Amino acid sequence: MPNRELFMLTTNNEKLIKISVMGEIASPTIRSVYTVSATGQPHVLPSVGGITYNLRVGDLACGWEADHVEPGVSAENKENDSRSGVAANTAFNVLSCVGNEAIVVNGDGKGARGVVTGKHGGIEHVLIDFPSGILDKLVLGDKILVKAFGTGLKLVDFPEIKVFNMDPALLAAWDPQPKENKLLVPVTHVVPAAVMGSGLGANQVNSGDYDIQMFDKAVVDQYKLETLRLGDLVAIVDADHSFGRIYRQGAVSVGVVIHSNCVTAGHGPGVTTLMTSPDGKIVPLINREANVASLLKLRADI
Length: 302
Hints:
Blueprint: E1 19-25, E2 35-36, E3 42-43, E4 51-52, E5 72-76, E6 80-81, E7 86-87, H1 88-95, E8 101-104, E9 113-120, E10 125-129, H2 132-135, E11 143-148, E12 162-163, H3 168-174, E13 177-179, E14 182-187, E15 189-192, E16 210-211, H4 217-222, E17 233-240, E18 246-257, E19 270-277, E20 282-286, H5 292-295
Parallel strand pairs: 14-20, 15-17
Antiparallel strand pairs: 1-5, 1-11, 2-3, 4-5, 5-10, 6-7, 8-9, 8-11, 9-10, 12-19, 13-14, 16-19, 17-18, 18-19
């Protein structure tokens, strides 16, 4: 990110709880052998789950022979709390935040550290990036502890802007800048709400994602969506995520691209919400370096 006048947003960081949550590396799943595309063509493609060795945050989200592929490691908690009837995986997904530290607790990779990079709805996976050398030491079923921190984060000087799913360390690295009564937020792309698909209408954004449809070539070309990378921070205009995902003119929501493009109708690169303003207090500022891999220095090769 280019150097700017130093400014540290005031947050309620000191009031946040840091708590352990746990998942295990989930096996890849295929619900149907054939995935039918939006043009009616059948495909057999890799999809969600597993350890993805050659796709990490910082890589392009499009152009792969894939559908919903998750970069790095996909994790879930398979335990259920019989006393309350609430799945532990819900807590794993809601409390984990982008930028959180993740630690492998067993197996050949024990002690290795990674970073949470997103949360994928529907399958309810937490996505975690590890260095390539660590990926080779991991196996399906290895347990990963996440030091969950960030739920409840607030911007004290911008109460109209809601924050979700974000470790304060990511916010500090991202460094949005105030201008009068608005916040200038670095993003790689601006995306119109009109092309947002699967996940629209969810009644909360504390977990999961929703997808950028890539089926209209004119829109893809106009907004340069073919250059989207995993980990990109993107602004969705006319989208309010304050209490779920709705269309609202003048609203702006910002999130992180978390999984690959898709061939199925209504789907595309997924976005996990990080910020939202129902009345346009967020002003997107195009910066091609606004990517989680760059901000958190997850890769030396980009």
